[in-house]
Design goal:
A hairpin with a 3-residue loop joins β1 and β2. It is built from 3 helices and 5 strands. The chain is globular. With 141 residues, the protein is an alpha+beta fold. It is 30% helix and 18% strand. The mean pLDDT is 97. 33% of the residues are buried. It binds adenosine monophosphate (AMP). Adenosine monophosphate binds next to loops.
């Protein structure tokens, strides 16, 4: 399989360029983390590299390492912010895996004992997502 070209107009590229808004929770020179607007669990966040890459298959090893380093940081903050019992990390690469947005991203989904993953197609309540983003930011400080 050859990896197709990176599309500069994907939605996360637009978020990185500030063309569309996001609930940002963390940013440094190499990554951005923000809230998923279809949360599969309370406080579901995404970590993306700033370098243009479709997914883990064409990302630089440095981007993969840094994204995961920050995913761990967000995960630890989420345990604190949401009193979570665990964290699910997800990453999809290419169509066959279920990838929908073609800019590399890692999902950080806080989990609570006995609570199943939420549906993949139900937009979250924006006020709740904003409030959860603020809790994450506070826990990251
Ligand atoms: P996947 O490519 O399968 O990992 O899915 C893409 C993820 O990005 C889904 O969980 C979407 O809810 C999420 N998503 C799509 N657009 C946005 C957006 N504008 N802001 C935040 N999350 C988004």
């Amino acid at each position: 399989m050859s990896t197709p070209e990176y599309d500069n107009d994907n939605i996360f590229a637009k978020i990185l360029r500030g063309e569309i808004p996001c609930f940002k929770v963390y940013e440094d020179d190499h990554v951005l983390a923000f809230m998923d607007i279809v949360p599969r669990g309370m406080g579901h966040a995404l970590v993306i590299p700033k370098e243009p890459c479709r997914n883990m298959l064409d990302a630089s090893p440095e981007a993969v390492a840094h994204v995961h380093k920050i995913a761990q940081k967000i995960a630890l903050a989420a345990i604190k912010a949401f009193n979570a019992d665990g964290i699910t990390i997800q990453q999809f690469s290419e169509d066959a895996s279920g990838q929908k947005v073609y800019h590399y991203h890692v999902h950080v989904v806080p989990r609570h004992e006995g609570k199943k993953f939420g549906p993949a197609n139900v937009m979250g309540d924006m006020d709740a997502i904003k409030a959860n983003g603020e809790k994450l930011v506070e826990a990251l400080e």
